[in-house]
């Protein structure tokens, strides 16, 4: 006998994104007992050595913080960006080969963590609108996940922060040429980049400092211009909303459900004006009954929920309430 009881068993959830990786450890009843944080764990944008070190650090850190032994750990659920394909998951599994954690590791894409943060383990679609853009859906059987978009900034990411920022830059340059309408975005972008002439923006965009995040961050400026009544900015956001609706509709059509929960995730939806615009447009286009959710717990809690599900533990109302109480923000639905 190892003295391990149900009450002393623990589950670990890890949510790994492009900029940071979060980890929590909890019991079977929704009590989050410890947490840890580290840098990005995307295997396509970081060295495998660094990703392995970071993931191991998180696991060991939360175990030490909560005085938990290896024998108490039931499941370590990793939901990681860049782990869509089976070959990606195999790469991460190899990090733990020969370690005491090897048989307790479960790997999924980070979109599932975001989905379950909104649905508490129930079926639905998560629409991610940050620098990039993707929808990920799970139906009731959970065997055939649906993935729409996520093709990256060169081939897709329609309706994303990057797409909005790119449309803003194009609109300003067209205005400068006389090919487009005058817009507040010209002055706002010049102030943002601290330049005296819009032509000076070219070496910034095409220079060594270019990043997708740089352009994606311009979405906030577009939203401010829209709030100030700028027609060009409003049209940019309308186009982004329409693209987002197309992504959701494509996912719903593949899943063929009469009712559907849509979880909103990502920085764009933190703007209430944009979120309301999207919700109104989506509801006007759909025949399916929609339950649109802004999660009140973070994605790492969704990874923890998936860990519990791996052990066939029901996600009861008690578990949901305990998680909400831990993270506290009020539910926000539209």
UniProtKB/TrEMBL annotation:
It comes from the Bacteria. Residues 12-306 form the ATPase BadF/BadG/BcrA/BcrD type domain. InterPro entries: ATPase_BadF (IPR002731), ATPase_NBD (IPR043129), Euk-type_GlcNAc_Kinase (IPR052519). Gene3D superfamilies: 3.30.420.40. This is ATPase BadF/BadG/BcrA/BcrD type domain-containing protein.
């Amino acid at each position: 006998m190892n003295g391990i009881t149900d009450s002393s068993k623990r589950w670990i959830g890890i949510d790994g994104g492009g900029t940071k990786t979060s980890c929590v450890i909890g019991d079977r009843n929704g009590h989050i007992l410890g947490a840890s944080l580290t840098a990005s764990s995307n295997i396509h944008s970081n060295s495998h050595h660094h990703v392995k070190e970071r993931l191991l650090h998180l696991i060991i850190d939360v175990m030490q913080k909560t005085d938990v032994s290896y024998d108490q750990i039931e499941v370590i659920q990793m939901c990681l960006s860049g782990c869509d394909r089976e070959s990606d998951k195999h790469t991460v599994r190899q990090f733990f080969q020969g370690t005491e954690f090897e048989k307790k590791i479960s790997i999924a894409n980070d979109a599932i963590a975001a989905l379950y943060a909104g649905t508490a383990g129930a079926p639905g679609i998560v629409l991610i609108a940050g620098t990039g853009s993707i929808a990920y859906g799970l139906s009731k059987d959970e065997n055939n996940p649906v993935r729409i978009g996520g093709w990256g900034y060169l081939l897709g990411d329609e309706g994303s922060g990057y797409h909005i920022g790119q449309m803003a830059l194009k609109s300003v340059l067209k205005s400068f040429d006389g090919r487009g309408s005058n817009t507040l975005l010209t002055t706002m972008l010049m102030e943002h980049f601290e330049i005296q002439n819009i032509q000076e923006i070219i070496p910034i965009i095409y220079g060594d400092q270019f990043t997708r995040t740089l352009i994606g961050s311009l979405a906030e400026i577009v939203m401010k211009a829209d709030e100030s009544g700028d027609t060009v900015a409003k049209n940019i956001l309308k186009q982004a909303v329409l693209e987002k609706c197309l992504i959701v509709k494509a996912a719903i059509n593949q899943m063929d459900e009469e009712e559907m929960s849509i979880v909103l995730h990502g920085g764009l939806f933190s703007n209430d004006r944009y979120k309301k615009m999207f919700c109104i447009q989506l509801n006007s286009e759909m025949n399916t009954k929609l339950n649109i959710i802004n999660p009140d717990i973070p994605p790492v809690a969704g990874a923890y929920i998936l860990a519990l599900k791996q052990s066939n533990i029901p996600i009861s109302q008690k578990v949901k309430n305990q998680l909400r109480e831990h993270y506290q923000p009020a539910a926000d639905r539209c």
